[in-house]
Specification:
mainly alpha, single chain, 112 residues, elongated
Amino acid sequence: MIDIKRFNGEKEFKKTLKLLPSVPTNNEMSEKTGMSKGSISNIMNGKIPPSKKFIDKFKNGFNLVDGDIVPQNQENPEELKDKLISVYEVSLKSAETTIQLLRDKIDHLENR
């Protein structure tokens, strides 16, 4: 969930847009968020900052999960690096276990 205390609408919206394969048209955004085309136009042209409500509607309309967007300054780079290393180590361990299971199955089939 977006942290209101750290919420910066414009930056959060730009992060959200980067999650999409291409930037949707104002019409598409209006249809998926239920917001007026005028409001969408003002947000896209930088005349008004996108509100948390708008970003939530945008994420829901385009099926983006809250975990895809990290609030600005939530974690420092070292903490993030350590977490990524931990996740990769778990993934590697899982892959090693799978490889060993497959080797055991091959051995079993070859020794029949």
